[in-house]
Known about the structure:
The structure holds two protein chains of two kinds. By secondary structure, chain A is mostly helical. Chain A has one domain. Chain A has helices at about 1-20, 25-40, 45, 55-75, 80-85, 90-95, 100-125, 135-165, 165-185, 195-200, 205-220, 225-250. In chain A, helix 4 (about 55-75) runs parallel beside helix 8 (about 135-165) and helix 7 (about 100-125) runs antiparallel to helix 12. Chain B is an alpha/beta fold. Chain B has two domains: about 1-220, Rossmann fold; about 230-295, 2-Layer Sandwich (Alpha-Beta Plaits). Chain B contains eleven helices and 14 strands. In chain B, the strands form three sheets. Chain B has a six-stranded mixed beta sheet with strand order 6-7-8-3-9-10, with helices on both faces. The mean pLDDT of chain B is about 85. At the A-B interface, helix 1 and helix 6 of A face helix 2, strand 6 and helix 3 of B. Chain B: Keywords: Antibiotic resistance, ATP-binding, Cell membrane, Membrane, Nucleotide-binding, Translocase, Transport. Chain B: It is found in: Cell membrane. Chain B: InterPro entries: AAA+_ATPase (IPR003593), ABC_transporter-like_ATP-bd (IPR003439), ABC_transporter-like_CS (IPR017871), ABC_transporter_ATP-binding (IPR050763), DrrA (IPR005894), DrrA1/2-like_C (IPR025302), P-loop_NTPase (IPR027417).
Amino acid sequence: MKPFRDTWLVFQRQMLLVRRTPIRLVIGITQPIAYLLLFAPLLKPALAPMGATSYADAYRIYVPGLLVVLVLLSGLFTGFGLLAELRAGIIERSRVTPMSRFALLLGRALSEVATLMGQAVLITLLAIPFGLTVSIGPLLLAYLMLALMGLMASALSYAVALVIRSPAALGPLMNTVSQPLALLSGVLLPLALAPHWLVSIARWNPFYWATNGTRALFAGHVDDPSVWQGMLVIIVLTVLAVLWSTRLFAQRVR
Amino acid sequence: MIKTSGLRKSFTVKKGATVDAVRGVDLDVTEGEIFGFLGPNGAGKTTTLRMLSTLLVPDGGEATIAGADLRGDPGQVRMRIGYVAQGGGTTDEVTAREELVLQARMYGIGKTEARERANTALDAFQLTEYADRPCATYSGGQRRRLDIALGVIHHPRVLFLDEPTVGLDPQSRAHMWDEVRRLRADGMTVFITTHYLEEADALCDRIAIIDHGTIVAEGTPDDLKREISGDVVTVGIEGSTQHAADLLRDKDDVQRLETIDGGLRLYVDDSSTAIPQILRALDGAGIEFGKLELHRPSLDDVFLTKTGRQMRES
């Protein structure tokens, strides 16, 4: 019980900070909205080979990709927040209390996930006037998949931040890692359009599976094999990432 | 209340070399005292403090804090101690009340009780007026008071304070001393590190000095000053002090001698016989000397004698 109560406590505190500085939400969401408004209208003709005959089809393909980019990129940069809190002594103050160490990290990661999901819902709503239609059941499953991706990316970012310890190095490193990961999961344009060799590489990228699964869910195809495949890949990776980062946190934060 | 024996910690630095930061610290802090822990930078002061507050795991040795075994049961130690870091650790966007309630909840205290404790703490540390403003708006003194209020919200038996008055103006510092004395009056044991020797002198019941990872002196400030027996005489010398130093070093009354900026500092048994002797010697050798000062040893002198360094330059 205690780890859960502690996680909830840390989560509440981090959400309080988010409420106090709403500007952070705005900054995180500006770029996806720009893509939604300024890039997506090009999509119907571009996605025609995928069978997109209407804007609704185009948005069903594009919006899930955009959401994957959002949770993946924002998640991978949450390590900055952890480093700042370490530097400010906020984490040290909790470490001299009997709080569960696991909770100190997980509560933080979950608050990042909650923020990301808020942004994801907002983007989905904004896409509706453009003709996006999606049924609620599959949508909730898609959100679950996105939430797990966010948790994984955040845990990964914490772990890397704890290893390299330098905000100056974390930024470039995360950029270097995240750009190919995002492109190789076909977030902008589905890899179904890609040449064979590119798809073979993408198959090694876990986010490729997760992106396909999310797209299938937005299209309402809950029984598409890509859904359970994506879900399985993401669940395994999330568990590993959380274990790795909490272990590092217990060992390295001194 | 705090008892350690042989507490050790070493760190691995680059290329596998190890640094023995703390090499066997024995301390015995009794209940209800303000205990000062002094030492030059790099002497092992912070490492010891971090071990005692469970932030670092010792490599060896034993420690019991408020009856709980540091290495066997750090969880219990955490319940019984409070720790206030030098930089505090409050968040700019959050209010004092929110921080206090959260801190109480971190110790497993229920919501209602946490709110009551926050109110009591705000009152006790004269923060009620600012309780609902974000911490970013606080003055240095207010922030420091909040830090300490956070450190004692769970009524610990021992409070660790790391450099509690760094960066405070004299008035806030005096205020902080009063707060610490008030905590002692409530029965709390306070373990404090400081760079200010006058602070240690005025505030602490007993002090320990750590250097090169071991305790080099321990006792009440008065005892330690007495230990460096006799008086301290400072003579201003014009020109080179080398000649004068050689001349005076062997005098019977002079125990120890140091070159300082523009003169010499001499530790003597009895100034009433030593001063004439010093003056006669200097005069006889034709050395021009200026101002001569006499003072009782201060903690600065204790520190210098024990560590060979001035606190300020360290």
